[in-house]
Design brief:
With 149 residues, the protein is mainly α. It has one domain. The protein contains seven helices and no strands. Helix 4 packs across helix 5 and helix 5 crosses helix 7. It is globular, with a radius of gyration of 15 Å. It starts with 8 loop residues before the first helix and ends with a helix.
Length: 149
């Protein structure tokens, strides 16, 4: 008889309800789900983003320590925070460009994203996506403000 695995809150939160385990592209899938949540329940408020950042930092740190891996690929709560930051306060029409740009930034890790990733523990896990999401938001906000009336 197979034993049931004990429920692990750290893993559940860090993997965004287990989404990080379901694919070979966990960051892309988690970003897409975060995008869909933002589109289905607009607007995403700063309090929600801050909550995901604080909870994500805590639980991703605990989970990565248990696993003995600096930034396990199944930890995707950071993608949720980064995606929501990239869409914050922008019209819903900017959501898809935000998703594409955020994934590019997250995969390519340009300066200063790669520096943020080097921070220790849960802070480093979350920081690169916070910085990446902020870069995307700044770009899209500038386009909206200065180029589109």
């Amino acid at each position: 008889m197979r034993k049931l695995k004990k429920f692990d809150t750290d893993e559940f939160v860090a993997t965004f309800c287990g989404i990080g385990h379901y694919t070979k592209m966990p960051g892309t899938i988690a970003s897409a789900v975060a995008f869909l949540i933002a589109v289905a329940f607009p607007p995403i408020h700063w309090a929600e983003i801050l909550t995901v950042i604080v909870i994500g930092t805590w639980f991703s740190d605990r989970y990565s320590r248990k696993k003995g891996v600096k930034d396990p690929p199944e930890v995707v709560i950071d993608e949720v925070a980064g995606m929501w930051i990239s869409m914050y306060s922008l019209p819903l029409g900017y959501g898809l460009p935000a998703l594409v740009l955020f994934r590019l930034v997250d995969i390519l890790k340009p300066f200063p994203v790669y520096l943020a990733e080097k921070l220790p523990g849960g802070i480093g896990i979350m920081a690169d996506d916070i910085v990446g999401g902020s870069m995307v938001w700044l770009l899209l906000y500038a386009i909206k403000t200065y180029f589109i009336t």
